[in-house]
Amino acid sequence: MIEYFSLSRPHPPNLPHPCWSHRTAMALLSGLVSGLRFETQLRTLHQFPETLLGDPSRRIRYFDPLRNEYFFDRNRPSFDAILYYYQSGGRLRRPVNVPLDVFAEEIKFYELGEVAINKFREDEGFIKEEERPLPDNEFQRKVWLLFEYPESSQNARVVAIISVFVILLSIVIFCLETLPEFKHYKVFNTTNNGTVVEEDEVPEVTDPFFLIETICIIWFSFELLVRFFASPLKGAFMKDIMNIIDIVAIIPYFITLATVVAEEETEEYVIPAESLSPHEKGSNQAMSLAILRVIRLVRVFRIFKLSRHSKGLQILGRTLKASMRELGLLIFFLFIGLRKAFDAFDTDKKGAINVETISTILRMMGVKVSEKNLQEIIAEVDEDGSGELEFEEFCALAAKFLIEEDEESLKAELKEAFRIYDKQGEWKG
């Protein structure tokens, strides 16, 4: 498309008019654009002196002295919106018959500025990109780009690949540790010449899994510290959710390491088993196991470290953030349902249900599980080792079977199970 513009008062463009300051406000700029004529006052264009049409020194490059008019070989439908931008004082609307990329190029050509471009992108529904400042120091800037922007250089891509590999390795190790063939057990002698075999939650320093975990933590700690010292904004760095996840992901290791060191130091000063009552031994053991299990569970957060290198996980995170209200309601109603189910099966109203009742619940819900597997599952969630499940432990047990269970069928099965109980929770079958 071809645009032609001519001044209504012809005058050599390279010579100042003797009365230019007075006549500029009344001068008209007219143009012929593919057969259509546009006309506007110069003072309208001069509202935006930083733009191409508003700055005489810039638009003079497109002046044709032979024709005594301006010539622009640009898209004609877009010029309606460009001219309206000057006439309306800054309102920019894309014509419906002009593609996005074409109109964006026209905005850049007429030099409407970053404010107009950002406003146009916002009106079109584009996500506003946050400004991410870079460090002023040259060395810090290179380090920051190396660890924070994988697309900035080849070395940055190598660092990103190493980081992803270490994250995946730590997740695989975390999963393998839970397999029965890799678990460690302790054998205790009792006072009646019997033995008790219990799972050892505290790893040994020479354990291969612990050594690999140590290597992964060294890399995570090194990466976090380097990024912190190279960060241009230390406060914003500490408030960023991804960096908080990085910190949470490495804390369990140091707590476990402190536990290992403390256990080795106390082996020389072991308290005789006879000096502790069975209740004290069970209480201390249950508390220690509960703490260690919670600490080990926190390591699951490492999988979120992959979102730093995955656009898909970032989109998933934004989706979950936008759906927090609905997810909160879902968890709330699920909690109420579990509370009702627990109260219905707690026939003796002691605040706990036994193994036989749990087996009955699972059987009525159509969950097939062997007695051995059931004992193992109950042992995992029974933190106090009482042999009965309290409500919090019952929720943990239900979570293991709710993942693959259809919600509607689960409601129907629970409803059928509740029919067997009367309002007082007494068994009628």
TrEMBL record:
Catalysed reactions, as listed in the record: K(+)(in) = K(+)(out)
Membrane topology: Multi-pass membrane protein
Recorded GO CC terms: organelle; voltage-gated potassium channel complex
GO molecular function, one term: delayed rectifier potassium channel activity
Segments traversing the membrane: 158-179, 209-229, 241-262
Annotated Gene3D superfamilies: EF-hand (1.10.238.10), Potassium Channel Kv1.1, Chain A (3.30.710.10), Voltage-gated potassium channels. Chain C (1.20.120.350)
Keywords, ordered alphabetically: Calcium, Glycoprotein, Ion channel, Ion transport, Membrane, Potassium, Potassium channel, Potassium transport, Repeat, Transmembrane, Transmembrane helix, Transport, Voltage-gated channel
A biological process term (GO) from this entry: protein homooligomerization
Cell location: Membrane
InterPro entries per UniProt: EF-hand-dom_pair, EF_Hand_1_Ca_BS, EF_hand_dom, Ion_trans_dom, K_chnl_volt-dep_Kv, K_chnl_volt-dep_Kv1, SKP1/BTB/POZ_sf, T1-type_BTB
Domain annotation EF-hand: ranges: 338-368, 369-404
Listed PANTHER family: POTASSIUM VOLTAGE-GATED CHANNEL PROTEIN SHAKER (PTHR11537:SF113), VOLTAGE-GATED POTASSIUM CHANNEL (PTHR11537)
Protein name in the entry: Potassium channel
Phylogenetic classification of the source organism: Eukaryota, Metazoa, Ecdysozoa, Arthropoda, Crustacea
